[in-house]
Each structure stands twice: as structure tokens, then as C-alpha cells.
Write a structure and sequence with these properties.
about 25% strand, three-stranded antiparallel sheet, 10 strands, alpha/beta, Rossmann fold, binds S-adenosylmethionine, seven-stranded mixed sheet
Length: about 260
């Protein structure tokens, strides 16, 4: 058994999803979704893999979400074309509880045939997809969960399963934001507790801190970095309630990587 969080955090994660999540909806998705939609709008019959997909809510929103109620989908001209082009969206997730919840979501939206969630732990032994079988890999707030060794293996695996010239598009926390949140210096590879919410009210996760240098050096072995974009809030509505997202040190960054 693998440990994904501490004390009942899966149900807290579900609550967070249902309550709406300012960081995800107004800071991260507005940077991440346009990159994914842009790729999909240009690539018919795409097979997409989402690593550490949780309840697969990102896939559900991208493919079936009601555009008017999702800030990052409003006004994006690529949504319909990207949806049409997505042959299959597969989420991979370690927690069976979150997979069960994703299956309940699928039930609620009428069991669509082009999205699925698979329960598997991702580490250095992970091998689920054939070489050059995937058009696009994505992840959101997942890579911080991997140890240095597993992160290296993950990047190598993604570079193998992607078709030539394809992309890995993801958002991950800014290491400097992680340092601030931890409130202390950390060394590369250090495992630490990361609190969701101001004081952990949305659960506590384990992350492995990775320096920016290690991160870039590792991805550079397998990918060309096409773009790194800071995730900054698209609305001023939350300056008081969520001041941390308006800090000069952005919470997260979106990477667009092209396989070498
Ligand atoms: C912060 S959550 C993000 C979930 C989802 N990507 C989203 O943005 O809604 C990170 C997810 O990664 C999963 N996870 C962490 N380590 C994993 C591993 N080694 N293998 C598979 N899933 C993992 C966790 O269970 C959790 O669902």
C-alpha cells in the first residue's frame, strides 16, 4: 500500500473540489487550460494521459465542463475543437478512493466513452503505456509528489510513451513558493508536509522539494522547454482572502515541453 496523504485527505480533496478552489480556478487553470486546448485543437484523434489525475476533474472540465461556469474555459476559442479532437483522455491516479469518486462523476455525466480513470501507483517501476502511443501528457499539481528518483523515471517514461514531437504540458508548484510555505530552507529531494489552505484545512500532502536547477536539468535530458509561464491570478477579487496568490513569488508555473 502506498501512502498518498495524511488522515482522510481524499474526502477533504473532494470537498475542496466541490467548494471551488480559488488557486486552481483563478490562478492555475487560466494558465494551464489554454495550453492544453491549443494543442488539442490542432491534433485530431488525440490520446491524452493525465498523471496523478485525482478525481479526473481536469479531464471532465476540459471535455465536458459547462464553459460559462469555468473561468479558464470562458472566452477560449479552442474548447469545442479540442473536445472534438480528443479520442481518449486517460487519468492515472494512485488513490482508489479518488478513482471511485471519478467513476461517480462519470456516472453523473452519463458514462462518456472517451474518458477513463486507472488506478496505478506511479514510480520508477511504472509502465502502463506502449512507446510512442500517446499524443499528449498532462499533469496538474502532481510532480511535487515524486521523489527525485521517481521524478527522473517519470520524465524518462513520458518521453518514451509520447509520439515523436509530442508534448508534456503541466503545472507544478514554484519551488520558491514551496520554500515560503514550508517556512524554512530545504535541500533537493527533501520530503516535507504541504498544507492545503491557510492552515491545512484542506488536507496535508507529502511533497518532495526539488530545486529549480534539478528540475530543469532533469527535464532537459528528455525535452525541449518551449515555455514556462508563471501562474498569476486573473481576478482581483481574492486579494484579501487569498493574498498568497498575489505575492511576487508566483504559486505555480505551467511548463510546455516538447519531447526531444
Ligand atoms: C494535489 S493532487 C492533484 C490532483 C489532480 N491532478 C488535480 O489537479 O485535481 C495530487 C494527486 O496525485 C496523486 N498521486 C500522488 N503521488 C502519486 C503517485 N506516485 N502515483 C499516482 N498518483 C499519485 C494523489 O493521490 C493526488 O490525487
Amino acid at each position: 500500500m502506498h501512502e498518498y496523504g495524511k488522515s482522510n485527505w481524499e474526502s477533504l480533496w473532494e470537498k475542496l473540489e466541490q467548494a471551488g478552489n480559488v488557486g486552481i480556478d483563478y490562478v492555475i487553470n487560466p494558465s494551464l487550460y489554454p495550453q492544453i486546448l491549443n494543442f488539442l485543437a490542432q491534433h485530431p484523434n488525440s490520446i491524452v494521459v493525465d498523471f496523478g489525475c485525482g478525481t479526473n476533474l481536469m479531464g471532465i472540465q476540459l471535455l465536458f465542463g459547462y464553459k460559462a461556469s469555468i473561468p479558464a474555459l470562458q472566452n477560449n476559442p479552442n474548447v469545442d475543437h479540442a473536445r472534438f479532437n480528443t479520442l481518449l483522455y486517460i487519468g492515472v491516479e494512485g488513490s482508489q478512493e479518488l478513482i471511485d469518486q471519478s467513476n461517480r462523476y462519470f456516472h453523473d455525466i452519463g458514462e462518456p466513452k472517451n474518458i477513463a480513470s486507472v488506478q496505478t501507483h506511479i514510480d520508477k517501476n511504472f509502465s502502463l503505456f506502449d512507446n510512442q502511443s500517446v499524443d499528449l501528457c498532462v499533469s496538474r499539481n502532481f510532480l511535487m509528489h515524486l521523489s527525485l528518483e521517481d521524478f527522473l523515471a517519470h520524465m524518462a517514461d513520458v518521453s518514451k510513451i509520447l509520439k515523436p514531437g509530442s508534448f508534456y504540458i503541466f503545472t507544478t508548484l514554484n519551488p520558491n513558493y514551496e520554500l515560503k510555505k514550508a517556512g524554512r530552507e530545504m535541500v533537493n529531494g527533501e520530503r516535507y508536509e504541504f498544507q492545503h489552505g491557510k492552515s491545512g484545512e484542506y488536507g496535508i500532502f507529502y511533497h518532495y522539494y526539488k530545486t529549480r536547477e534539478f528540475f530543469k536539468e532533469t527535464i532537459g535530458k528528455y525535452f525541449e522547454i518551449e515555455k514556462i509561464e508563471d501562474c498569476t491570478p486573473i481576478s482581483d477579487k481574492y486579494t484579501e482572502t487569498h493574498a498568497r496568490y498575489y505575492d511576487s513569488e508566483p504559486m505555480a508555473q505551467t511548463y510546455v515541453l516538447k519531447v526531444k
